[in-house]
Amino acid sequence: MRNIVGEVELDDLLANREAIAKRIRDIIEGMATKWGIDVASVELKDIVLPVDMKRTIAKQAEAEREKRATIINSEGEVIASQNLAKAARTMAETPGALHLRTLNSINDIASDQSNTVVFVTPIEVLRAVEGLNKFLERKSK
């Protein structure tokens, strides 16, 4: 029995108990008939695993769960990146879409009083406003 059970992997042993029990029964029956004994059945009911084997199986199961989680996470990242690329193409093709998105983001940020919104303005724009201000001051004099 030990030889037959030792030849198969644990997964196969658990999944194919009947087939393995039949192989053991055939071997036992072949030897027992010489003595006039008839073997009615052989059943594998309880398989006792050594502690080291249980730890190994637990590690393998944990690694398999981590592998599946990584695959699921990476598939989600792929879908998210495809959606972001699609959104970027749509914004690039639609005039004013980026401005509307910016205004929407500012509106979302402004709804919380604890946030501070900082507008980054190019120095050229500030100089143009300053020049316009000087022009208007000279004109008003």
From TrEMBL:
One GO CC term on file: plasma membrane
Domain Band: 1-77
Organism domain of life: Bacteria
Pfam families: Band_7
Coiled coil: none
UniProt cross-references to InterPro entries, sorted A to Z: Band-7_stomatin-like, Band_7, Band_7/SPFH_dom_sf, Stomatin_HflK_fam
Family statement: Belongs to the band 7/mec-2 family.
Name by which UniProt lists this protein: Band 7 domain-containing protein
Organism field: Candidatus Amesbacteria bacterium RIFCSPLOWO2_01_FULL_48_25
